[in-house]
Design a protein that fits this description.
The chain is of the alpha/beta class. Helix 7 links the parallel strand 7 and strand 8. Helix 4 packs across helix 5. Bound molecules: adenosine-5'-diphosphate (ADP) and magnesium ion. Adenosine-5'-diphosphate (ADP) binds next to strand 2 and helix 1.
Length: 241
């Protein structure tokens, strides 16, 4: 289980997160909020890439700062940025990431095939990433995140820039991953995550505006069955960004 305890993050005089506390058990969670809400900052703190100004992140009750390397092998992270490895083939990129994750030489070949087949990328695996479509790039990013079958999966805007068909495909692939793990997915598009998420967290200007199941949120913010309206209610016009 992942616990965020009173996380605040300041970049000089800019407060990106303020007193964020969350407990996430196994399941799929949508982290929703417009540009600048603090989603990527929160994900970078959860994955240990940046340190909070205040507060702690716990995995099964232990501060992740104390877990060090063993926490690394337990998480999979697909960052929002992509295109850093355009000259690598998909397979070579995965081999490189597997090495960084400490996956043994003995296991690496099978593990790469497993993650490639998971995201339906076997056929394109030997092409360079630079030649991939946006959706294929996202799928290879998801593939590297699931190397080693992590118990905590953090996907930062995995559907950004994709067309509607590709968005559905990514959503279905995330749904397939659910099981005995915590999956946190950020987006500003409600329909990308609401159909598969056990819970939605709305992040507004660095604070949790509300969180809960789709049913709970719809009941709270009106009698509509449409969670888009919940999003509009919480973020208004600024939510379109
Ligand atoms: P989101 O992912 O929801 O778009 P971010 O976490 O990227 O939000 O950003 C939250 C806020 O923090 C924004 O106002 C952004 O400009 C600011 N911010 C993010 N990273 C930095 C940084 N390295 N230095 C200064 N400000 C930053
Ligand atoms: Mg972001």
């Amino acid at each position: 289980m992942l616990t965020l305890d009173n996380i605040t993050k300041k970049y000089r005089d800019k407060t990106a997160l303020l007193h964020v506390s969350l407990e996430l058990d196994c399941g799929i969670y949508g982290l929703l909020g417009p540009n600048g809400a603090g989603k990527s900052t929160l994900m970078n703190i959860i994955t240990g890439n940046i340190r909070p100004t205040e507060g702690c992140v716990f995995w099964d009750g232990t501060d992740i700062q104390r877990l060090g390397g063993s926490f690394r092998s337990l998480i999979g992270y697909a960052p929002q940025q992509q295109g850093l490895y355009n000259s690598f083939s998909g397979r070579r990129f995965l081999a490189y990431m597997a090495a960084l994750k400490g996956i043994s030489k003995k296991e690496v070949r099978d593990e790469i095939e497993r993650v490639l087949s998971y995201v339906n990328m076997q056929e394109a695996a030997d092409r360079t990433i630079g030649s991939y479509s946006g959706g294929m790039k996202q799928r290879i990013l998801i593939a590297q995140a699931i190397l080693g079958n992590p118990r905590l999966l953090v996907l930062d805007e995995p559907t950004a820039g994709l067309d509607p068909k590709e968005r559905v495909r990514i959503r279905e692939q995330i749904e397939k991953l659910a099981g005995n793990k915590v999956i946190l997915v950020s987006t500003h598009v409600v329909s990308d995550i609401a159909p598969i998420a056990g819970e939605l967290c709305f992040l507004r200007s660095g604070s949790i505006a509300d969180r809960g199941t789709v049913e709970y949120l719809c009941a709270k913010y009106g009698d509509s069955r449409d969670v888009e309206e919940v999003y509009m209610h919480i973020f208004g016009e600024e939510g379109q960004k």
